[in-house]
Automatic annotation (TrEMBL):
Protein name per Swiss-Prot or TrEMBL: MFS transporter
Top-level taxon: Bacteria
Predominant place of localization: membrane
Organism: Heyndrickxia shackletonii
Secretion signal span: none
Membrane topology per record: Multi-pass membrane protein
Gene Ontology MF term list: transmembrane transporter activity
GO cellular component: plasma membrane
InterPro entries listed in its UniProt record: MFS, MFS_trans_sf
Length: 439
């Protein structure tokens, strides 16, 4: 009964966060449209994306340390309040004066910092209130909500913008924060009993060092982190190159269909995982479903028909939430509660830090390596042009297929790793790997 109550508490908390997430996604889409319409500059839009990602990554280690040092519910409340203040600031500026780009950049940086504070606190609270046997279902719902917001928010915002304009979207977003705050205030979260020496640490840098040391000594978790960092690195290239590939062989209608296919598949995958909970042996789930995703990802790029491509895209992204959920359960089950904030924050920072690099490398690698290689008169174009096509189209396909094969190979190799297999044992990590300063 206690485990059921814990899952009920999670559902209440999750519902509030989902409402807030949808509101924030509406604002994110509306601001992107506002920037492109007012300035006509893709560069300004790209700067907004950088403001959303880089500050959060830089502050993640500090946020994680504070999550372990302070009250986690308080951290989430502070995060929601900071986001609400940024949203309100944009609204007031837009209402009383002329909204400038630096106003938007400032608000986006505040949202990025708030997100860095909320992620480790949210994940650690889920591990506190949900029994281990229900963690798969809980994390499946979280995966689903993340994907659902990317599907639901753009069309709703597109419908509402002509009628209520950006000001109306901002009001909806601001009100949605009250849902998150209300759910946090209602849900009871048990305290974490840490030693007095931990609570009285003089330097937050020591806390961060403990988190780094914990990861360094837990080789299996470090390999897990390496695997997901590589997957994110590969998917970063896909994020940049998929759209020009689709537009080179079809039109914007097909592009919209493909992008919807990605979102719908991830929502359905999250829903299935929330109902199922995942396999008993979670490491097999991570690499088994990762292998399926990577194989389907590899086959996408030899397809020249949009419908056939969509089948492999759907399968690849449908199984991503399965592996992500299994991974999250392992981290929540194996990492001690009083260090989860630091470890989860570092995990997020490392796993996501390679994506901006793949964004920056996409164009140079395509323009200077793969497109010349697949020129109709080049060796690659002559031997592989029948499979991939020639020119930029063929270069994109060859590049992404090579990345897919790397993902497949990594999934197979790590699935046989002895230390990783031990994570399926029903026990916490050995005490010997916990830093001395952590109780």
């Amino acid at each position: 009964m206690e485990g059921y109550k814990g899952f009920q508490s999670f559902l209440f908390l999750w519902g509030g966060q989902l409402g807030s997430l949808l509101g924030s996604s509406l604002t994110s889409f509306a601001l992107g449209v506002y920037i492109l319409q007012k300035t006509g500059s893709v560069s300004n839009f790209a700067i907004t994306l950088l403001c959303m990602s880089i500050p959060g990554l830089l502050i993640s280690p500090f946020a994680g340390a504070l999550v372990d040092k302070w009250n986690r519910k308080g951290m989430m409340l502070a995060s929601d309040c900071l986001s609400g203040i940024a949203t309100l600031g944009i609204f007031v500026t837009l209402f009383f004066s002329q909204l400038q780009l630096w106003h938007i950049y400032t608000a986006v940086i505040m949202w990025s910092i708030a997100g860095a504070m909320q992620f480790p606190a949210y994940q650690a609270i889920v591990a506190q209130i949900v029994e281990k046997k229900h963690l798969g279902r809980a994390n499946g719902l979280i995966q689903m909500s993340d994907a659902a917001s990317s599907i639901v928010a753009p069309p709703i915002a597109g419908i509402l913008l002509p009628f209520i304009h950006l000001q109306g979207i901002l009001i909806i977003d601001f009100l949605s924060f009250f849902l998150a705050i209300f759910s946090l205030l209602v849900v009871k979260i048990p305290p974490i009993h840490a030693s007095e020496s931990f609570r009285k640490k003089q330097s937050i840098l020591i806390d961060i060092k403990d988190g780094i040391q914990y990861l360094r000594l837990n080789k299996a978790l470090l390999w897990f982190l390496t695997y997901f960092s590589l997957a994110n690195f590969i998917l970063g290239f896909e994020n940049v190159l998929l759209q020009p590939l689709i537009l080179s062989i079809s039109n914007t209608k097909s592009l919209g269909f493909v992008m919807s296919c990605i979102g719908v598949s991830m929502v359905l995958g999250g829903l299935v995982m929330s109902a199922w909970g995942g396999p008993k042996r979670k490491t097999r789930g991570v690499f088994g479903f990762g292998l399926i995703s990577s194989i389907c990802f590899t086959f996408i790029w030899i397809c020249h028909s949009i419908p056939v491509m969509c089948i492999f895209i759907f399968l690849s992204f449908f199984f991503l939430p399965f592996g992500n959920t299994c991974s999250q359960v392992i981290w929540q089950s194996k990492v001690e509660l009083n260090i989860q904030g630091r470890v989860f924050a570092l995990r997020r920072m490392i796993a996501m830090s390679l994506m901006p690099i793949s964004y920056l490398l996409s164009a140079p690698l395509l323009d200077h390596v793969f497109t010349p290689l697949m020129d109709s008169h080049a060796l690659g174009g002559q031997f592989l042009g029948g499979w991939f096509g020639v020119g930029e189209n063929g270069g994109i396909r060859l590049f992404l297929m090579i990345l897919g094969l790397i993902w497949v190979l990594t999934s197979v190799i790590l699935s046989f790793h002895k230390e990783i297999k031990l994570l399926d044992e029903d026990n916490k990590l050995k005490d010997s790997v916990v830093p001395a300063s952590v109780s």
